[in-house]
Amino acid sequence: MRKLDIETELYKSFLRLGSNAQDQDVEDILYFLVDAYNKYNDQQIGYDEIDLDQLIMDVQEALSDDDNYMNSNFDNHDNQHVILILDKNVQMLPWESLPCLRFQAVSRLPSLSFLRDRIMLTNHVNKKGENKRGEKTEWSDYVIDVNKIFYVLNPSQNLKHTQNKFEDFVKNIKGSDGIIGRIPTDQEWVDGLTNKELFMYFGHGAGETYCKRNKIKNLDRCAVTLLFGCSSGRLKLGGEFDPSGIILSYLLAGSPAIVANLWDVTDVDFDRFSKSMFKNWGLTSNEETPTKQKSNVSLVQAVTLARKVCNLKYLIGSAPVVYGIPCYLQGNS
């Protein structure tokens, strides 16, 4: 039997049926092909000459083989990071939770300029030799010191469940500094962002009540930031203008990566996510105490893995996203 060359678009029409293609869908495409062939060729194909049942089975088998091949090859490749550049019209959607991306390490940025800035920042840091993880010094290998952490936990004093969950954890991080159960001054907030390498906020919103966005965006440097409040990563639409939000201030200040929420979340389920994210990232061990081991999991990968533990995987698990590039932890040996 001679192999038949077909156009790419026609081939795609079969692939769109998927590996579980229904008989009726395959039959419709086959009849369409026969009709098209008879219309443009002198030599006609009689419908009574077609063994339709066998042809449907052959197509379904080919689709299944193609699906198995793609899955096996996907599993054999490293799970590389994907950075989405999202414009104002699509940035509010949780693209990271699409079925095709849900298990992929995906972060986002508003423009290529922001990505360029972070590439230059990481190249500069690696060139100076300040951050190293083994022998690797790629632009996508930004490493932060686990000993330089600042935290703000429950400053409004009405998130008792969150405070009970994480108070011992943050206190046990050697070399860390922070505030628990009181309102920070704007200078304390700024010092935490500029003098530390990881800034963690456990409170309502993005903490703009304690430090205004204009002050943040004018900082000379900014730590990797975790904003665990409701809608902390939401960008407000501005019609024909670009959207606005405090996340942009952190990016303009030079933060390599920010974890924030696209919409409101419940504290219990999100605390479960946060705990899992810290563990995946390498900030905690199985004994739930901070670890100083080098992490081979980036912040982006840790967020991706932590989505699974949420009871509401799409309502709560899809809310947190990462703005920025992959970042790794490293402590003292």
From TrEMBL:
InterPro entries: Peptidase_C50, SEPARIN_core_dom. Its EC number is 3.4.22.49. PANTHER family: EXTRA SPINDLE POLES 1-RELATED, SEPARIN. It catalyses: All bonds known to be hydrolyzed by this endopeptidase have arginine in P1 and an acidic residue in P4. P6 is often occupied by an acidic residue or by a hydroxy-amino-acid residue, the phosphorylation of which enhances cleavage. This is separase. Residues 146-241 form the Peptidase C50 domain. GO terms for molecular function: cysteine-type endopeptidase activity. It is an enzyme of class 3 (hydrolase). The keyword Hydrolase applies. Keywords: Chromosome partition, Hydrolase. GO terms for cellular component: cytoplasm; mitotic spindle; mitotic spindle pole body; nucleus. PROSITE patterns: SEPARIN. It comes from the Eukaryota.
